[in-house]
Amino acid sequence: MTNINNPNWERLWQVIELSGMTINAFARHIGLARSETLYQIKNGKNGISRNVADCVVARFPQISKPWLLTGYGAMYVSDDDNSARQIPFYRCDIGEIGSLHEKRPESYMFLPQIKAADFAVCYSGDDMAPSVEKGSVLILQETDAESMILGEEYVIIGRKLITLRKVRAGADDAVLRLVAVNSAEYDDMTIRRADIEKVYAIRGKLTIKN
């Protein structure tokens, strides 16, 4: 599917191949409202816009944005390049994670200490205090539900909830108990493993002091 007569698509297709996705799935993954945007690049009608490039590198920070836009330089950012660790920050609460594909990052964070993360969002609750203070910024990475470690904190998206909790064993293997640190004011919740849609591990917490 490569095309030396369309270098824009040639570069974009290399990233799509890297992802292992179809064109339509890749478009959804990077947050494009319409996959037609990619097909127009493929057909040579459009080049790679800065908006498309921003969407790509937000999901694939190892890809060099200058290379994607122009073809100059290396495809991958170097390990010592801060752009390899750019983390898109969305000024919204964890409850809005499900609609991030409809939003643009407000800015990007450069945190050399964090090697892998998908995005950062705000946390406005107090059910996890003092472990996670109200107003903190959470740096999250999607992970496999089966790889969750009991006793650790995760953002969990289920069929009927989006929450940040410590994960504990439930009454049986099919159920998990979701525990609030602020147990004096918040009760435990339970969720069936089968009802978990996505899980995000916390790679970092930033507490903003006024």
Polypeptide structure, described:
This protein is of the alpha+beta class and 210 residues long. The chain has two domains: 71 residues, 434 Repressor (Amino-terminal Domain) (Orthogonal Bundle), CATH 1.10.260; 121 residues, Umud Fragment, subunit A (Ribbon). It has five helices and nine strands. The mean pLDDT is 87.
Main CATH class of the largest domain:
Mainly Beta
Average pLDDT works out at: 87
Terminal Cα separation, in Å? 53 Å
Number of helices: 5
Sheet with most strands: strand arrangement: 2-1-3-4-9-5-6-7-8
Q: Helical content, roughly?
A: 10-25%
- The count of domains is 2
CATH architecture of the largest domain: Ribbon
For the biggest sheet, the summary is: 9 strands, mixed
Low-confidence stretches: none
Brief description of this entry?
By secondary structure, the protein is of the alpha+beta class. The protein has two domains: 7-77, 434 Repressor (Amino-terminal Domain), CATH 1.10.260; 86-206, Umud Fragment, subunit A (Ribbon).
Q: What structural keywords apply?
A:
210 residues, 434 Repressor (Amino-terminal Domain), 2 domains, 9-stranded mixed sheet
